[in-house]
Write a structure and sequence with these properties.
The protein is mainly beta. It is 11% helix and 31% strand. The protein is built from 3 helices and 7 strands; from the N terminus they run βαββββαβαβ. A 5-stranded mixed β-barrel has the order 1-5-2-6-7. Strand 3 and strand 4 form a beta hairpin.
């Protein structure tokens, strides 16, 4: 099982969460909430209002999201869903655990004395330069006050 940190449309309550609970795509088990140990710019960009974490460590905010344990099948699905490596790249990042779901797995969550776990994250280093000038967010909600509603793939032209 691999650990994945999601910060955008795959989180609970967001438009693509349905994929995280679709066992036909693989297994994903919610482990808890976290935030990036380093700051990153989280922007909403493009005509479909897609959230992107730009791979520019030290800039932006500590980005909030959810930690999942996923099997190889789900990891492969996520790679395809995230158009990896063209649109997003899957890289290991340090994630601070904010809240751990499994009480019995406290040892696993606190394996690192500082409460930090390594997770795969889909961020991007392949973005138009003007995205750096977009507003940076510390968390994502498709119906947030930013007013940039995410456009589902099936609704795109």
């Amino acid at each position: 099982m691999a650990r994945v940190f999601v910060y955008g449309t795959l989180k609970k309550g967001q438009p693509n969460y349905k994929h995280m609970i679709n066992t036909a795509k693989g297994l994903a088990k919610f482990q808890g909430r976290g935030r990036t140990a380093e700051k990153y710019p989280l922007v909403i960009a493009g005509k479909y209002n897609i959230p992107y974490m730009l791979n520019i460590p030290g800039t932006g905010h500590h980005v909030a999201g959810e930690i999942y344990s996923v099997d190889d099948q789900m990891l492969q699905f996520l790679d395809e869903f995230e158009c990896c490596p063209d649109m997003y790249q899957r890289t290991l990042m340090r994630i601070e655990v904010v809240e751990w779901e499994e009480k019995g797995a406290a040892g696993e969550a606190r394996a690192a004395a500082d409460g930090v776990v390594e997770c795969f994250v889909y961020s991007t280093a392949t973005y138009p330069p003007e995205w750096v000038g977009l507003p940076y967010h510390d968390s994502y909600d498709s119906s947030g006050k930013h007013g940039l509603s995410y456009v589902l793939r099936e609704s795109r032209d």
